[in-house]
Amino acid sequence: MRSLFFTIEDFWSNPTSVFLTRLLYFTIVFSLLCHFICCFMEYNFKISLIQVPDDWILYKHNSYDMYLRQIYIVILTMTSVGYESPKRSFNQNLLGIILVMCIESLIFAFTLGEIQSIVSKYTYYSNQTKDIIYQIKKVLDKKNIPKSLRYRIIRYVNYMREVEKENVGKETELLCMISQPLKLEIFTYTRAAYLENHAVFQNYSTGFIKYVGYFMKMQICSKGDLVLLEGEKGSSIYFIINGSVDIFSQTSKTIYKSLSKSKSFGEIGFFLGICRSASARCDSFTELVYLDKETFNRLLTDHPSEQIITKEIIKRAEKDLSMLGIKCYFCKKLTHIAKDCKKMLIKLQKDKIMEKAALKRNGGGKKVNLAFSIDKKFMRPLHESDLFRKYAIINVKGRNSHSPTQKKGSTLAKKAEKYVNKLQILMPVPGRKLRIVEDSDEENEKNEKFNSILPKSKRYIENFLKSRRRKSNTEVPQIVVNAD
């Protein structure tokens, strides 16, 4: 049975599944031991009934009740002080009880030890990770590392410990115990599979791809790490195992595409040796497998036929990038890359842009008073010539004013209307109208000869207004009587 469970564990790679399998194995073994002890105890009890008739009181006719009672006694013996009180007489029942108590004590000790080993194995990585993170936090506190960088470091350590828990990080150490042919077979299904699925590497032989896959290296990046930088000279090709990578423009920060699992990038720099045409940044924790140009060239020296194929690929790729299987991320064509795609370029219409700018500057076609839009601190300070004296009937001395336009006083107009009403009552003239005008002194003197029908001595209202105007030296409304 033990070998059977070991073969079952070989099918599991998840630690939780292995833990549950071991727990099931322990439960079955513990149940079988308890069952055998119960059967032995029941057999011993039936034999003791012949010698001790008093025990017939404890006898159960139902087999289920007998088995349940013996299970209760076995578990009680394991978890408490011991078995129920034996008889003082030294007989076969007493010897059986002593033997069973010893066996059950051993089973109880074995149970505790097995449970402790299972739990400790399951929590080994978590406890070790806590200790490592605690030590890292102490070092980061001493060095006064910023919180943002500290958070990224702790997240990266947690992820690396999870990878080691799944035996992915220790892949090289585990493969050291395997022979070279087995390693090549393993890498055929792990790393070399990415090369076989790529369009360019399908031109090479299968044996060479297996051999190259053995020399590929693994890299784990955290979120925000730059794998490639636009403009730098790179010589590696990358394949994504887990996670996602954003391909973007370093100048405009435009994301061309987000690559997911089993995708590749960096083919142009790997084969042609030119500068990177775009940048690559990890969007999450990402596991990558990459191959260096130097390692690849070193392997080609031992394979002349594959070296000829590589030279032909480079020769054709310099003329047309479709040889590398590279497609534009925007239009999905093989002739160019996303950086040179016409769909990415924006045609500037200068006439429309200038027209919109002019409309925006002029307020959308509305007239704008620039005097009010300019800030006061940029305006010319006031001068004495900008001020003028403003007089009124109420204020004879006058006051300074900045406004060049005078406003008509409403109070003065109301008083003039009252004078007109009184004049119509005192001196009713049929067929004539009185109106209020604002004339200067010169115009009044010219119009006196033509407009006035009364002698000067009889013009009471006009003489009164003239006397007031002389005192205030201002222009006041004048009452003029016009004939129809």
Within CATH, the superfamily of the largest domain carries the name Jelly Rolls
Strand content: 5-15%
The CATH architecture of the largest domain can be given as Sandwich
- Overall structural class, as computed from helix and strand content, comes to alpha+beta
Q: For the record, what CATH class of the largest domain applies?
A: Mainly Beta
* Average residue pLDDT: 73
Task: Please compute the radius of gyration using only Cα atoms.
Answer: 53 Å
Query: What form results from the Cα inertia axes?
Result: flat
Please count the beta strands (DSSP E, at least 2 residues each): 12
Number of domains: 4
Taking the sheet with the most strands, its summary is:
4 strands, antiparallel
How many angstroms separate the termini? 137 Å
Count every helix, treating DSSP H or I runs of 4 or more residues as helices. Answer: 18
Amount of helix: 40-55%
Q: Which residues form runs of ≥5 with pLDDT under 50?
A: 85-90, 370-375, 429-441, 474-484
What order do the strands of the largest sheet run in, or round the barrel if closed?
Answer: 1-8-3-6
What do we call the CATH topology of the largest domain?
A: Jelly Rolls
Order of helices and strands: HHHHHHHHHHEEEEEEHEEHHHHEEHEHHE
Keywords: Membrane, Transmembrane, Transmembrane helix
Transmembrane segments: 23-45, 95-113
Protein name: Cyclic nucleotide-binding domain-containing protein
GO biological process, one term: regulation of membrane depolarization
